[in-house]
Every structure is written in C-alpha cells, then in structure tokens.
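Moderator note: this is an archived Q&A kept for reference. The question asked for a predicted structure of one protein chain; the sequence and the answer are reproduced below.
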Amino acid sequence: MSGLSYEKKNILHRVKVEGCIRCPNSEQRKKHQDQYGYCTYAKTTDGLGARCVGGWGANKAVFLKYYVDITGKALKSSWENIYYIEICSGPGICVDYNEGEQFDGTALAVLQTEGAKYFSKLFFFDINPITIEILKQRIANSPNICEEVKQKVIVSVGDYKKPNSILNVLYANIPSNVRGLNVVFVDPTDLSVPFKLYDSLLNFGNTADFITNYAYGTDFQRNVVSAFKKPKSPSRKKYEGTLQELGFFEDEVNRLDAEHNNFRELAKEHKKQFLKSFEDRGYKFVITTRIKWYYELIYISKNPLGRKFWEEASKKSAREREVGQKTLSFD
C-alpha cells in the first residue's frame, strides 16, 4: 500500500515533555507556574525551566532561524561587522501546551544556523536574571551550536524600559571603530516597548534592520478602548510610550472608534503611527508577517536587500518549514 505523507524536519528539535498535562486555558497554566512564569509540571530534556506557549509561538522561531541564516551567509563578504541583537530573549526553550512538546525558542534557533557564524557578535537580553542564567546554560551545553558561535555570544540582563541597560552592554562590547549592521529582534509579549529604545538603537552603529513583535491581539485588544476613558491609566501610558509622537488618544477619529469599540481600526492607526517614525528616518521597506490574530512580526529596513532576505525567510509558512514536502511512501 502506498500514499503521500509528510516527513517532519524537526528543525526546532521538538520532543515530548515529561509531566506536561496540556492545560486547557490560561487560568490552569497560571496555577502551575512559579513566580517567574516557569511551568512546575513540564520537565524539559535538560531539566531547566521553560515557559508554556501556544503552538503559534514556534512560528517566529522558524522565521528568525531562516532569516539569520540567509542574512549571515549573504552578507559575509560585503559587511565586515554584523551584529544580532535580541531583546526579550526568553530561556531558549518553550513548551507547546497544545502538543505537550518542547521546541527551540528564537535564541537557540538562530544560533544553530550556519549563518550565525558570520555575525561578529550575537547579543541576547532579558529582564529576568533567572531567565538569563538558564539561557546561558542552554547555549553552553547545546551540542547543536558550534564553538565558534558560542564564543561570539553575549547574554545579559537588560530592561527595554531602561534603554541604557542595553546600550551600555553594546557600547562595552562593540567599539566605535567596528560598528556595522545591527539586526535587531524585539520580542515583547505586549505593546510596551517604548519608542526611546528604538531611537537609541537607531543611533547605534552604521545602520539597523528591525524585526519587532507587534502584539496587537492580546493586551492591546483588551485595554485600548478603556485607555481612552482613563487618561491616567497604566495602559494609556504604555501605548503612548510606544509611539514617538503624542496625539493618538487625542485624535477625534480614534476617539470615535473607541466609542464604537472598533479595536481593529485603533490597532491599524496605532501601527501606522509607530511605523511613521521609521519612515521619517528613511526606512522604506516594511513587511508584515501575521501570526494568527495574536501578533505580527514587522520587518523594517532601509535596504531592498534586507527586504529580499525577509521575504525569502517568510515565503513559506512556519508549518511548511517544519513539516517539509510531501513524500511518496510504500507500506
């Protein structure tokens, strides 16, 4: 008997996790987390902590893996210095609570590529010191990351709300005479990264390409309408801070959309204002890669070559990348 089947590539090293009970909702997951958000039930293969995410969480790891690989190999001869900077790195491994499987997060995924060899240094920042120590151990112990790449990795505590905590590490490790292209991945869980962080990174190095997680479908969706009604609310302060210019909450069209609970138009306008600050600085190439309805990965570059690299990395869905091609099997 014969038929068509898919052969999994397992590019994120998926494996079943001992102890995972595949919690059906966020309330259940919170009951099983410690104070740092790590699951107390699931036991990863290396015994280190992991956070539970939906299956779509692997998508960004797949896209980043291919993008870094393509960029590093393509630019190795034309750029003397290329730096990868990841903000909100996480611990390196996540648990898919839908499938009960662990998989490589973005940090481990990009470091395992051939393209990573051609980056001068690769930086990973997270606000949680426990997370940073876990990621350090995972990188050091990984048999899938070559020693050449491990020697280029810098893992550090960094708070994106305090840009200097990140910039100081960059200044200490990248002298002014060796600055070059910065590939920056910003991966928060909500719309809380202040524009002053982007502004600081825009002024560091010769140029920068950005991939940012625009998480419009979670916290923003729940709270943006109420933020119009409560001028002093933390949510309003947060969403204002992500934009360079004030005025989003004073705009009459936006206020009317809020009165009608028109979240989609508000999200569209917020993103438009966010991107305008980059466009004003000469960033002409913007590509949006949607991840379900939860968030978008937005690629931002001044260079059409960068756009080409991201288009190549994201032209197939993450599932297609992971599962691979159909093959003819004989039983």
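Archived answer notes: Residues 1-6, 326-331 have pLDDT under 50 and may be disordered.
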